[in-house]
Design goal:
With 422 residues, this protein is of the alpha+beta class. The chain has helices at residues 4-10, 12-24, 35-47, 60-67, 133-149, 172-178, 227-245, 256-262, 303-321, 343-356, 370-378, 404-418, and strands at 52-57, 77-83, 94-100, 118-120, 123-125, 156-162, 186-189, 197-201, 203-212, 249-253, 266-268, 270-278, 288-297, 324-331, 336-337, 362-365, 381-384, 401-403. The strands form 5 sheets. The protein has a 6-stranded mixed sheet with strand order 1-2-6-3-7-17, sandwiched between helices. The longest helix has 19 residues, at 227-245.
């Protein structure tokens, strides 16, 4: 009988062909207007393996109040596919297997067509190959291998493939959690990377501030009030806040690759100023200046304290420098944290280590996931392990790529996680 390794390698062509088809379906968001097309492509794939599939659209009234944005078009549809287990000690337990189908816009600077997956130097290049369509192709390939070998699954399976993760703030996964569609005891997130098994993520708050001045001709600037100059005073105060915030660290270690690259040992709190907009013409003193940024907060930091600190610092800075301004803080995804010693986490770590033939660590990551919102609602035990590599794969950038060996290894990881191989 062929080994799992041999069977997975034998499906290499099938896997790559499937990934090319997924990449070719334009699910870049904004606008996210082709979600129906990719869901309709996937439903018969899962039904062929005996899954009961449901296309779930976010209701219009929910979209209007929680997710509507001018840049979005089309229906916000998602896929929930379930298959019962025939037998096994854990067969009555249900595992939710999740990732998202939307991708960020391609942008410029590519050396290949971003929506035509290209194989070169033992890698696949294309938007979404690492984040996160590669994982979907691996999952379907794992199901194909299991069917060939007539393997029994360990648990009932609930596959959840959603949309709008990349744009937020209320993704398809958030809606499914609130609407009661997530019914697994455990939650395996295929979004992320293969640097380690992630059990912790930072939460995110986006902020904006509008600083007001008084416009006039630039030759008489002394009778006006320059909003950019006022904003610079505020920026100086925010840089002091940044210094304070970024001294804070979590108990959770970063990935070994990030530690090697940066020397940072543990998850770190972050404060960023990322956008600035002001002025209409060189000879006009600007009457307003807009600043935007984000605050990444640790699982150990209570949201109420984070918001209070931001409010007090902006208020003191404005009073100190006589700045007329308004500011707003908008919490997005909360932090995620699962006990690193949980038996499910150890099972995932063990399977990942075996599939990739290197010892995987249990880690935290700097980014934020909609998974955190979902499992806060459902109380599922969750961890994340993805197909790409955090630095090398270039997710969200030109020439996004994934190693073909990593696709094959990830398929083996899913085989170990979903099926009885004894």
């Amino acid at each position: 009988m062929p080994t799992i390794d041999e069977e997975v390698k034998g499906k290499r062509g099938e896997l790559l062909s499937l990934l090319k088809k997924l990449v070719a379906i334009r699910t870049d968001v904004p606008p996210g207007e082709n979600y129906n097309e990719i869901i309709d492509f996937l439903i018969p794939k899962f039904e062929a393996f005996g899954f009961k599939c449901e296309k779930v659209e976010m209701p219009q009234e929910v979209y209007e109040t929680r997710q509507k944005q001018e840049c979005l078009r089309g229906e916000r549809v998602n896929l929930v596919a379930r298959r019962d287990a025939k037998s096994g000690a854990g067969a009555k337990e249900r595992l939710t297997v999740y990732t998202h189908l939307d991708v960020v816009p391609a942008g410029s600077g590519w050396h290949t067509d971003p929506f035509e997956a290209t194989v070169r130097d033992d890698k696949v290049y294309g938007r979404g190959v690492a984040d996160s369509k590669g994982a979907v192709a691996c999952l379907l390939t794992a199901l194909s291998v299991a069917e060939t070998l007539e393997l029994e699954q360990k648990r009932e399976l609930e596959v959840v493939l959603t949309t709008d993760e990349e744009v937020g703030p209320y993704s398809g996964l958030c809606y499914l959690a609130d609407a009661g569609f997530l019914t697994g005891k455990y939650f395996l997130c295929m979004d992320g990377d293969n640097d380690g098994v992630c059990v912790a993520t930072n939460g995110i708050i986006v902020w904006e501030a509008e600083i007001f001045g008084k416009s006039c001709h630039s030759s008489y600037s002394f009778i006006g009030e320059n909003a950019i100059e006022k904003a610079n005073l505020l920026l100086n105060e925010l840089m002091r806040l940044k210094g304070t915030i970024e001294q804070r660290t979590s108990k959770m270690p970063c990935s070994p690759f990030l530690r090697e690259l940066t020397g940072i040992e543990r998850m770190r709190a972050v404060f960023n100023v990322t956008m600035m907009n002001a002025g209409v013409k060189e000879n006009v003193i600007p009457e307003r200046c807009e600043l935007r940024g984000d605050r990444r907060y640790l699982p150990e930091e209570p949201l109420e304290e984070v918001l209070h600190e931001l409010e007090e610092h902006f208020k003191r800075a404005a009073e100190k420098h006589g700045i007329r301004a308004r500011w707003e803080f908008k919490p997005m995804y909360p932090p995620m944290f699962t006990d690193p010693n949980d038996s499910f986490v150890e099972e995932v770590r063990r399977n990942a280590s075996a599939a990739f033939r290197r010892e995987m660590e249990i880690i935290g990551v700097q980014g934020s996931l909609d998974v955190a919102y979902a499992v806060k609602k459902t109380k599922q035990k969750a961890c994340a392990f993805g197909v790409g590599r955090s630095v090398e794969s270039n997710a969200h950038a030109p020439d996004e790529n994934v190693r073909i060996d990593d696709l094959l290894n990830y398929t083996k990881f899913l085989m170990l996680s979903l099926f009885n191989l004894d």
